[in-house]
Amino acid sequence: MDKNTQANVYEFKQKHLLGLSNYSPEDILFVLDQAKTFREVLERPVPKVPTLRDKTIVNLFYENSTRTRLSFELAQKRMGADVVNFSASQSSTRKGESLKDTIRNISSMKIDMVVVRHESPGVPHFLTRCVDAAIINAGDGAHEHPTQALLDMFTIQQIHPDLRGKKVAIIGDISHSRVVRSNIIGLLKVGAEVTICGPKSLMPANVDTLGANVSYNLDETLAWCDVAMALRIQMERIGGTTDLFPSLREYHELFGIKMAHLEKYPDFMIMHPGPINRGVEMESDVADSGRAHILNQVTNGLAVRMAILYLLSGGTRI
C-alpha cells in the first residue's frame, strides 16, 4: 500500500453504537460515506453482499417496532448473517427472568452483535457491561435512536451533500421523542443548524440546554429552514392523555404542515421518521407530495443499518 492510499484510510474505532454523543463528526461522516456504498448495493438486481456471513446477530426487542426491526433484520439477512429474533412477550422474561440473565444466556450461545430496543433509557449501555458482543441501540425509551438520526442525515445529504450550515427544523413532540435527541446531537456535530418547534407543553423542561434554537411559531420556522422534519405525538409515552394540548385538530391547525405552506415556502424538503398520523403532523397531500422524502428515509435506513453493522463487525473500506 503506497503512502497516498494509506492517507485515505479512516480508522473507525467504535465498538458499539449506543448513541451519537460518543461519535466524532468524522465517525458520523464516515458512517454516512459507507452508507452510500450499501445504497448502491440495494440498487443491484441481487441486493446482497456476504460481508456478515460468519456473524450471529440477536435482535433483542422489548418494545414494539415495525420499521426499525424489519429494517435491521433485512439488513442482516442481505449481508448473510445468522439472525436470531428475540421477542420479550414470548421469552422467559415473562417468568421473571432479569434482563441481565437473559442477555447472558443469549451471549453464551456465542453471538457477535446485539440490536436492542427497550422502553427504559440506558439499557444499551447496561448491556455493554454484561456481554462482549457489539451493542447497537435501536431506541431506548425517550433517550436516543441513533440509527434513525444517521438515516435522516443521510437522506438530507442526498439533497444537500454538505451538511454544514444547513437549517433543519424538527417539529412536534420534542419532549417525548428519542429521534429529536439523536438528531440534534448528530446534526450539530456535522455543522448543521437546528431549530425545534412545537407547543410549549411538548417542550422538555431543559429545552435551553439541548443546543438547538427554540420556536413556537410554525410559519417562522418553515420560512427559515431547508429541511422540515415532523414528529408524531408520542401518545404511548404521554400516557394516552391529551391534557398537554386541547385536541389533535387544534394541534394540526397550529403545528401541522399543510399544502399552503408548500406553496408559500417552496424550498424546504419534508421528512418524518414514521409512523405518520395523516391530518395531524401534516396533511395527507403533503405526505404524498414530491417534496416529501419519507419513503426514501425507509430505504436509506436499510443502507445506513447495513453500514453500521458492517463497521461494528470490524469491516473497513478505503
Describe this structure in words.
With 318 residues, this protein is of the alpha/beta class. It has two domains: 11-144 and 299-312, Rossmann fold; 146-293, Rossmann fold, CATH 3.40.50. Helix content is 39%, strand content 14%. It is built from 13 helices and nine strands. The chain has a five-stranded parallel beta sheet, sandwiched between helices. Strand 1, helix 3 and strand 2 form a beta-alpha-beta unit. Helix 2 (25-42) packs across helix 13, helix 6 packs across helix 7 and helix 6 crosses helix 13. It is globular and about 55 Å long. The chain starts with a helix and ends in a 6-residue tail after the last helix.
Across the major sheet, the strand order is 7-6-5-8-9
- Helix/strand-derived category reads alpha/beta
Number of domains: 2
- Helices and strands, in order, run as HHEHEHEHEHEHEEHEHHHEHH
Tell me which CATH architecture of the largest domain applies here: 3-Layer(aba) Sandwich
* Tally of strands: 9
* N/C terminus separation: 11 Å
Shape, per Cα inertia axes: globular
Which helices and strands occur, and which strands form pairs?
Blueprint: H1 3-7, H2 25-42, E1 56-61, H3 67-78, E2 82-87, H4 99-107, E3 113-118, H5 123-128, E4 134-140, H6 146-159, E5 167-171, H7 178-189, E6 193-197, E7 213-215, H8 218-224, E8 227-230, H9 235-238, H10 248-255, H11 259-264, E9 269-271, H12 284-287, H13 294-312
Parallel strand pairs: 1-2, 1-3, 3-4, 5-6, 5-8, 6-7, 8-9
Helix pairs in contact: 2-6, 2-13, 3-13, 6-7, 6-13
